[in-house]
């Protein structure tokens, strides 16, 4: 009984919907790591971070919307990664990344590790190497306020669609792991979905990450017309209206300058599914420096 009440509480926290255009320009969420250390103003770490973010902002040829690089010597090495949504046009990708580099250092001052997500891109940096590692946390979810009328059938068609897209995205190469598609249920309603992993992951790691993400569907998404789960290594979104651009418009071309992973993920990282997020109200979440990074909200 207690668990049922908790699940109801988790699924009842709602915010007002916003349009896709606004969502692309608005930050979805950010997280400042409190356990990875801090740096002091005018320190070597800050200089290295500023150099790396500056080079990222001025890089007009980010390979296929993906960038990862390191700068500085131990113990002041900074590692950074940026990823744009696979259907994002180059100019929109660059604009999103520029905004991210400016905002994240303001939102997480003096933090050695931080994350920020927009609809069109993600940026993260840290004093530890995370390239090639599947990391599912911190994560957050969002969902549409409207319900479908045929929840059971809708959920099954959605699951089959996400499973198919997961396989396609995971099998992508080191340039891009991204897939979009749609499926129609018997009532002639169409479900559109998008899945993506950071390209530095292996096929198995990408698949594991997306399995973790879709595993959250039964918790709060049953019967919802749209939803998404976003984590550092992967994300997915679905809607009953098309929300993505032509997936072939920005298809990758071979590039010899694509960065390579610098480390392999620990064996224990694979396949881990974290517990359901704890509920948090966005209005109060922003004022808590130690707030739970797993945010429940709506589009």
From TrEMBL:
Residue ranges annotated for the Gnk2-homologous domain, each copy included: 27-130, 136-243
CDD domains per record: Gnk2-like (cd23509)
UniProt keywords, alphabetically: Repeat, Signal
Annotated signal peptide: 1-23
Bias (Pro residues): 253-264
Domain of life: Eukaryota
InterPro entries per UniProt: GNK2, GNK2_sf
Region spans: Disordered: 245-299
PROSITE patterns: GNK2
Short name of one Pfam family: Stress-antifung
Protein name: Gnk2-homologous domain-containing protein
Natural source organism: Xanthoceras sorbifolium
